[in-house]
Fold:
Amino acid sequence: MADKTVLVSGGSGYIAGFLIRQLVLQGWTVHTTVRDLAREPAVRQLLAVDNSRLRFFAADLTADAGWDQAMAGCSRVAHVASPLPAGVPQSADDLVVPARDGALRALRAAKAAGVKRFVMTSSVAAIAYGRGRGVHHFTEADWTQLDQPGLTPYIQSKTIAERAARDWMATEGAGMEYCSINPSVVLGPVWSRDYSASVVIIKKLLDGSLGACPDIGFGVVDVRDVADLHVRALMSPASMAGQRFIANDRFMKLRDIADVLRAGLGPQASKVTTRNVPDWLVRLAARFNPLARAVVGELGSVRHQSAIHAQSVLGWTARPAEQSIVDTARSLIDLGIVKV
Ligand code: NAP
Structure:
């Protein structure tokens, strides 16, 4: 793979931004897609990299236009774009259709352009759900069980999209390597007011709008490390065909994250709650509140997601979740997104 041009889809996004920066700093030319080229100047300004190494293309996950042009001349692809809303949509198809069909569009265009390696940003949402309450340990061998009740549209979208991509590769993908990166909840410094939905939970703790913590938690990983894992998967001299890499530091309960904010920020964390919500109250709220409904199946669950595979195959390491949490909060304060 002598060619040094890579496509990163969804250049306006949180993870894609860090990935594009790392790739350009390492001497790569990056093609990136946005839905609307009117966003190009603002995204360029935020990325603040050598502009001559960055080209923008208009492409939407829900339409064919633009993907062939974006892929032309690229030897590798990081397909990062997929809808990640802060709320719960009316219909699962609002997320499933763009996630699945967008991945297939990107795969088809990549194959047609002679791309050698396709790295797809999936999620632990495709690995670790539908197992019910309790303490669970997950590896890349696991898949979310789609036939179980209570899966959010986002979880469905990531599982269906990764399955569809792997199925497509099995029948149509000869000559191209495919692997997925499966991050847990991505935190770390935010660099724009248009931040990812994963950061909202830290904002809500910090500004006091989350008045008490339900008994839920999630794996935490840093956006800088997720970008680094993509770079390693894109560039590794080893075959990445069929590989799957969990990106995670460790599982934390929401109340532990609140403790980290208080310990790390001192007086700036004065609005971070010290209270817990009992499970019965979350269940009651779930009758009329879609966000409470989305977490009710999570109550009491612990999901350990092992990143040993990424460490041993790609030499990847993750910084401590505590640092990612505090860095997220500091950036939200510095950008004026949260007033403390
Ligand atoms: P983000 O900042 O919201 O980025 C999502 C990107 O997808 C944006 O560039 C968005 O473009 C693009 N997108 C959404 N719908 C699109 C459509 N119909 N057509 C074209 N582009 C579309 O979120 P992120 O955290 O960086 O997430 C990036 C990827 O990582 C996603 O695949 C997500 O599922 C995955 N992931 C994220 C986390 C996390 O905790 N953040 C964890 C695991 C996996 P616009 O700016 O135009 O909306």
Observations:
- The CA atoms of residues 57 and 69 lie 7 Å apart.
